[in-house]
Structures are given as structure tokens and as C-alpha cells.
């Protein structure tokens, strides 16, 4: 449905995107993930037609809609957009906001379609309310309904949940995903939150400094990161400096195959890689311990190596206590150290 081919973009001397290519199929939810300034919002704006294509090409449903000498206006692309601030029209009611993109329909059909979406998002009692009277979650639902009501070919969402509290955010993510999947629309969602991407995406595009660092299914990125950056972006980790000799790294955590024959290595240990053992395993000293309710956050020293672990089992150990731990080696990743 959406094809972005070798797109580069600069703001003056700042290179925001460098030869980025991706595609999104109908019914697929793709998350553009990465830190602030990595180019993900610029890419979204180019797809929407809000930024001109300087280099490369953008296609929608087989039609070229953007290249250096061609830019189809956003209103002709059949693209729905949901912005971080929702961008509802303050002078229009909920129903009128949703009906705004349905101007090509006869009045009666437009009203019926808007009423359908008001009911679909669970706000029939607020059909005549104005945006300033709605909660953040209600505004988000109206913005999504407005984007979906005209049956777009593509929906673009820019950090749509970032301004909501945690409990509401989780609930709305699930409701939003259900609406998008029911509509069968291709969706690109921009986020800096790896948990959000893991929860919502069919595929994740992880971006770094204007380039795609890694792309694939969520579990592929988590379990098989291609770089230290990719590994560290998904969850809390301990980064350790190590050295490879003879193709292996010898550490306080054991021996590991190295990504290089010799030289400096970055070892990344996920917090969930360490668990308390009944007997045997590695001997660790507890340096700090905090209960987070459903799990414990534990500081450990194994030999001369300081790590942080997170587990739910057993009692909270005391500081200074020596305990046996077991290491899940599948959650330890080694990479040649970057310059």
C-alpha cells in the first residue's frame, strides 16, 4: 500500500533522513521507533505530503504521490492523520469533527456515517460535546474516528498516546489497535516507546540518526538485535566493556563466543537475564534491592562485575546478602565495540 524508496531529506546542513526505504501492506501496523531526532516524524510528514520529497520516491496503492518534481497534496492522498495533540477543531462538536472529512457525501449519509463512528468509539452521550469538555482519552478516540471515517488508504499516527496517563494509555492502545485491524487499513505509527511498539506493531522499523538500524517483527528485534544500539533500545540493560581473545570473551559471567576474533567488545545483559537460583549457578552479592510491587529490582555484583536484575520470584533479598543466580545466556548480546 505504502512504498517509500530511497528517501533522503535535509533541513539546511542537518541531514534528517539518509536513503530510507520501507513498505507497509494493507492491514499492517508498522511502528517507526527511535529516539528524538532520528528522523521518524520527518518520514511520517513526507508520507503525508506535509514535506516535499527532496530525494527518492513515495508511492500509495501503486500511484507515485511524491518525488522531487511531483507532490500530490495531502488532501488528495486519502491519508488519515492522528497528531500528538489530536488537532481537533475547537469550534466543532464531536460529531462535526468526525464528519469533517466526509464533505463529499450527501448530508444524510454524512450524518449517518459520523453517528456510526461516534457509537463505534463509545461516545454516543458526547456526540454534541465540544473538544475542550473531553478528557485526553476521549479526544484521542475522536481524532482516530475522524481519521478512519473517510476510509483512508493509509493512517499515519504521530506519538498519539504520549500525552496520556499510563493506565489510560494501555487501554487506548488496545482499543486503537482493534479499530485499525477491523478497518484493515495500512498504518504507520511513530513512537519513541519500545513497549508501545512491541505491543502494537506487526513490524518495527528502528531508526537511528536518519537511517534504518533494524527492521522486522517485534520479537526478532528483541531476541536478535543487530547492534548494541538496537539491543539497548528494548528494555533496561547493563552495558559492559569486554575484550575478545581467540574468538571468545571470558568474563565473570562465563565464557561467550565473541563477534570478533580479538579486540574490544560491548556486552549487553538484559535485566531479565538474571534469575534467583535454588542451588548452584553464579554467586552474587546484593548491592541494592527495591520492590516494584509485581517484581523486584536488584543490584548485584558477580566477581567484579556490577549488574542490575529484575525478577518476580521469591522474597526481596537484603543488601549484602550473597545469593545464587542463574544467567539466561539468550538474553546476553555481544557486539564489536563501536568507535
From TrEMBL:
GO terms for biological process: quaternary ammonium group transport. InterPro entries: AAA+_ATPase, ABC_transporter-like_ATP-bd, ABC_transporter-like_CS, ABC_transpr_FbpC, ABC_transpr_MalK/UgpC-like, Mo/tungstate-bd_C_term_dom, NA-bd_OB-fold, P-loop_NTPase. Transmembrane segments: none annotated. Keywords: ATP-binding, Cell membrane, Membrane, Nucleotide-binding, Transport. GO terms for molecular function: ABC-type ferric iron transporter activity; ABC-type maltose transporter activity; ATP binding; ATP hydrolysis activity. GO terms for cellular component: ATP-binding cassette (ABC) transporter complex, substrate-binding subunit-containing; maltose transport complex. Gene3D superfamilies: 2.40.50.100, Nucleic acid-binding proteins, P-loop containing nucleotide triphosphate hydrolases. Residues 2-234 form the ABC transporter domain. Belongs to the ABC transporter superfamily. This is ABC transporter domain-containing protein. It comes from Elstera litoralis. The lineage of its organism: Bacteria, Pseudomonadati, Pseudomonadota, Alphaproteobacteria, Rhodospirillales.
Amino acid at each position: 500500500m505504502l512504498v517509500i524508496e530511497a528517501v533522503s531529506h535535509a533541513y539546511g546542513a542537518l541531514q534528517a533522513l539518509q536513503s530510507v526505504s520501507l513498505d507497509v501492506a494493507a492491514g499492517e501496523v508498522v511502528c517507526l521507533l527511535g529516539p528524538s531526532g532520528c528522523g521518524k516524524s520527518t518520514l511520517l510528514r513526507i508520507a503525508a505530503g506535509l514535506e516535499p520529497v527532496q530525494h527518492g520516491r513515495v508511492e500509495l496503492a501503486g500511484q507515485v504521490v511524491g518525488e522531487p518534481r511531483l507532490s500530490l497534496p495531502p488532501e488528495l492522498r486519502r491519508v488519515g492523520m492522528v497528531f500528538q495533540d489530536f488537532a481537533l477543531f475547537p469550534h466543532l462538536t464531536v460529531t462535526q469533527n468526525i464528519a469533517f472529512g466526509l464533505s463529499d457525501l450527501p448530508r444524510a449519509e454524512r450524518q449517518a456515517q459520523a453517528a456510526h463512528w461516534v457509537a463505534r468509539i463509545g461516545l454516543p452521550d458526547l456526540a454534541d460535546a465540544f473538544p475542550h469538555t473531553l478528557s485526553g482519552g476521549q479526544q484521542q478516540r475522536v481524532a482516530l474516528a475522524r481519521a478512519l471515517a473517510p476510509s483512508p488508504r493509509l493512517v499515519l499516527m504521530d506519538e498519539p498516546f504520549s500525552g496520556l496517563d499510563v493506565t489510560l494509555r494501555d487501554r487506548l492502545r488496545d482499543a486503537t489497535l482493534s479499530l485499525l485491524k477491523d478497518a484493515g487499513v495500512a498504518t504507520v505509527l511513530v513512537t519513541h516507546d519500545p513497549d508501545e511498539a512491541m505491543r502494537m506493531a506487526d513490524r518495527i522499523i528502528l531508526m537511528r540518526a536518519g537511517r534504518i538500524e533494524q527492521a522486522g517483527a517485534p520479537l526478532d528485534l528483541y531476541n536478535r538485535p543487530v547492534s548494541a544500539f538496537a539491543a539497548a533500545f528494548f528494555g533496561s540493560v547493563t552495558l559492559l566493556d569486554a575484550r575478545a581473545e581467540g574468538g571468545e570473551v571470558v568474563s565473570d559471567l562465563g565464557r561467550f563466543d565473541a563477534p570478533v576474533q580479538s579486540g574490544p567488545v560491548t556486552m549487553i545483559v538484559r535485566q531479565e537475564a538474571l534469575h534467583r537460583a535454588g542451588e548452584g549457578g553464579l554467586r552474587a552479592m546484593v548491592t541494592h534491592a527495591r520492590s516494584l510491587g509485581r517484581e523486584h529490582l536488584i543490584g548485584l555484583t558477580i566477581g567484579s562485575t556490577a549488574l542490575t536484575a529484575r525478577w518476580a520470584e521469591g522474597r526481596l533479598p537484603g543488601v549484602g546478602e550473597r545469593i545464587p543466580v542463574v544467567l539466561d545466556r539468550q538474553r546476553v548480546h555481544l557486539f564489536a565495540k563501536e568507535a
